[in-house]
Amino acid sequence: MDFSLGDRCEELRTEVREFLAEHLPQETIDRVHETGTAHDWTFYRALGARGWIGAAWPKEFGGQDRDPFEMTALRDELRLAGAPTDGLGQSLIVARTIRHVGTEDQKQEFLPPALAGEIIFALGYSEPDSGSDVAAAKTRATRDGDDWVINGQKMFTTLAHEAAFVFLLARTNPEVAKHKGLTMFLVPLDSPGVEMHPVHTMGGERTNATFYNDVRVPDRYRVGSVDGGWDVMTVALTFERGGFGLSDADRVWQQAVAWAKTTLGDDGTPIIDDPLVRERLASMRINNEVAKLLAYRTSFVAARGGLPTVEGSMHKLWYSESMTADAGELLDMLGAKGVLRRGDGDAPADGWIEHLYRHAAVTTIYGGTSEVQRGIIAERGLGLPRPGR
Ligand SMILES: Cc1cc2nc3c(=O)[nH]c(=O)nc-3n(C[C@H](O)[C@H](O)[C@H](O)COP(=O)(O)OP(=O)(O)OC[C@H]3O[C@@H](n4cnc5c(N)ncnc54)[C@H](O)[C@@H]3O)c2cc1C
């Protein structure tokens, strides 16, 4: 079997590497790391100008019609270089959802600036009391003439401090079953009544708590039908789970190998010669390879016109859980100096292993926790009954 992605993808990889050498200076990577905001406008606009935000989109939308394998190659190169891609990932989820279920006016207003890299979207689903069970959202939207009035709070609204709009899940009918009384809105984040506070996570990412006090949104910014928000969310969540490729574990593995080759142990020989170090690096490399093949499988299913829900969950569960375990192994391998952070003098591997150790745990939570992914695999993949049925 040939596991390579083919010549077209290799050509694209070369182009992406050249682009990154020009548009992703070390200062950008450092700033993203220091602020925890995985988005950079200069880089993002350059990506948009190159046509790569909408690379997978049909040409009629200004896209490049690239297939899921090419998209995997593009994403992999961005990831290996440590490029900031949160704004890209979030915005594509919303843009693709608008393309599928939005009105013509919404497509014209939002899609061109989104694909050009002029605006990004935040995702406003989670609340203090509803994350995994996102349909239990309590944020209210009530109709008032041509507007809706929003009141409530969202938690973990990542990049709300950079985004133009939040894609907000709100309750419009509290009298019916929870999945049936929800509606989605695009809420301008500069509206009067929107407030936000930064939330700094243990993994270094900055996210936000956002508050909505009598925020008025015109009805034309409602996405999908009134009380039909769950159908819109189902589309959006499928796009969220289908968009993975290589992870930070692949980049940090390369950095760990470089460190082990260039650092001498107490006996004066390179650390890479220590069998215990080699075993840990080999084990992580195998886990990364499995994660990569599971990612390619999601691309394969998507390329054949399928919805890779179970495959996406398998990949997400594997990469986040194995990355968490492997980051712990690498940290142990570094000894006492391993806990030094980037910028703390002689932090081994420039502090990236210590960062991965904190970041990996967070990846088991966002985009659906590991337990939620296991539930999807069990029920939809293996056909097991839901608990209690
Ligand atoms: C850094 C970061 C960024 C994020 N960005 C965003 C964002 O931009 N927009 C957004 O809307 N949200 C965002 N989130 C929120 C994220 O989606 C939620 O944290 C996640 O869905 C879990 O929800 P919760 O935190 O409420 O935990 P809970 O749902 O309360 O879960 C608590 C525990 O119970 C377990 N559990 C829950 N339900 C089940 C079940 N059915 N079966 C088995 N176990 C279960 C969970 O696995 C977990 O261990 C972000 C989170 C983080 C950490």
Summed up:
By secondary structure, this protein is α+β, with helices and mostly antiparallel strands.
Describe this structure in words.
This protein has 389 residues and is of the alpha+beta class. It has 3 domains: 7-84, Acyl-CoA dehydrogenase/oxidase, N-terminal domain (Butyryl-Coa Dehydrogenase, subunit A, domain 1); 122-227, Butyryl-CoA Dehydrogenase, subunit A, domain 2, CATH 2.40.110.10; 242-381, Butyryl-CoA Dehydrogenase, subunit A, domain 3 (Up-down Bundle). It contains 12 helices and 8 strands. The protein has helices at 7-23, 26-35, 41-49, 68-81, 86-101, 104-116, 229-241, 248-262, 275-303, 309-334, 352-363, 370-381; strands at residues 121-124, 140-144, 147-154, 165-171, 182-188, 194-200, 206-218, 222-223. The strands form 2 sheets. Strands 1-4-5-8 form a 4-stranded mixed beta sheet. A 4-stranded antiparallel beta sheet has the order 2-3-7-6, with no helix packed on it. A hairpin with a 2-residue loop joins strand 2 and strand 3. Helix 10 (309-334) runs antiparallel to helix 11 (352-363) and helix 10 packs antiparallel against helix 12. It is globular and about 75 Å long. The two termini are 41 Å apart. The model has no long low-confidence stretch (mean pLDDT 93). Bound molecules: flavin-adenine dinucleotide. Flavin-adenine dinucleotide (FAD) binds at residues 123-126, 131-132, 156-158, 201, 205, 207, 362, 365-366, 368-369, 371-372, 375.
